[in-house]
């Protein structure tokens, strides 16, 4: 062993234990999370979440030779001296929280610490997060005036919400040597959980890449569930970063990104909340995120575009996403107390947005033009029409669940049908085979509106088939470019497209797009290899929106953004085929789509109990097992083995002939009573 390394080894034997403030849960929060996983099994090897709330780097990554790695045990402690003044520690996955560094120094100087989600931005200045758009965030410094042992603990307001790489460097005018004895991280996300691996849902299939993608979405959503006092500070700091803003009620809340913005954005929850339900099951964070939107609702009924302290306004689409999020949360929980508490405000929100519908055209006139990042918004924007249609449809169901006596359910259902007819009359481009971006003449056919048209059932089968095929014209080898945000690939909008193809019963296209986009990022050695990214460019760089002048530098992009977690719910709800259709699963649907997979299994937990499905497809038949809680009722929608040929079906060994509904190469059977069952289709 080299003399310097031998010295490091000796010092490690006498180093003080790492300074850590980790508790069973984050700080003084109540440990209300689950103690263990609901579905133990070998698929847990795909979970990216660590087994402890206190973690250390997995290895050293040499900045001089990025592909050279060393085992953690052989590399810690590590010495910083004049000819080797910088070392990069790799935590292996996206992490976030409070860092502690224990060190011994031979003289005066300082050590700096910088953080990065992506390998591209490793260096002595952290990637960008503060929102001031003046460049990288810089570094934190621990100063020392003499030789001896020291311990640096990151100040609470300097909590780093998301990073994988930590660069430690020495600043000294003399021959000072610093020995890094220990680095530990107190994880801040998922603050009410003592066991970060206690997932309440699972997914496993014959495709290992799809399995990893499912779990990368789930882990991203964990990193986006944060303590309510760790939001990005507003007004933004000019230098460095500050994460001490108050986000909302409770102990935990769902935000848009781990590194930034660390604020509630209801549009994100259009994708994030359903994926939370089928994976981690942390609906407490979803509830608190929705409640803050009701708490800050304007007197005219308008919801803010984002939660406090950011509190941006003037977005009709994000206003409606708060309403859709309300539906999703009540569907997954049957939390009628939450629904009734906010029901008057929900009605006021509906009156506000539907009041913008033009009587002559029947279309929404968009005046709140802030949106997800698309290039333009306003007038009769077609994407907004699709969201309003879905808002009316889900509102109609909420009115029934609230046992409303004002005939609101029927009124909103009628308004939804009127809007659907108006959309198809004024916004459809027959020659192109898709919807235009607006009711006016335009050559733009957006990804968002057309994906949502498929997902929300705004069109019949013929138009759905055309849209599904036309959307593939935007595809590149690494994902779908959004025409409404040229040269950019948005996994947020692509999440709607994936689900849209599946709703149009095009599983091969959906799986292809998942592998192209999410597979490309998950296997990208410059990314986190554990989470889902906010967006990226067609050329494969991470500068989402940087080419359009929105962002100061490419390092601002979030590499752990819950709005991109769509494949997690899509694989469960459509490929596995398991969904709940009324609160907490009193009614349910199982409608698998095989694509090119040979098998899949998965499930999730509700307050009624466990729901699980597994299927295996052979050449001439397939077998499906499912378990649902007692007292529930649902529909099995079973694909034909051979197109156009009605299959034979047995359930628990009994031939099924009566009560089968055949349509579009599927056979639907109603099953009542719950329990475990075996289905064979030939």
From TrEMBL:
SUPFAM superfamilies the UniProt entry points to: Six-hairpin glycosidases
Domain of life: Eukaryota
One MF annotation (Gene Ontology) recorded for this entry: catalytic activity
Domain Alpha-L-rhamnosidase six-hairpin glycosidase: residue ranges: 253-473
Alpha-L-rhamnosidase C-terminal domain span: 588-643
GO BP field: carbohydrate metabolic process
Keyword Signal: yes
Keywords: Signal
Gene3D superfamilies in the cross-refs: 1.50.10.10, Maltose phosphorylase, domain 3 (2.60.420.10)
Name of a matching Pfam family: Bac_rhamnosid_C
Keyword Transcription regulation: no
Signal peptide (residue range): 1-22
Protein name per Swiss-Prot or TrEMBL: Alpha,alpha-trehalase
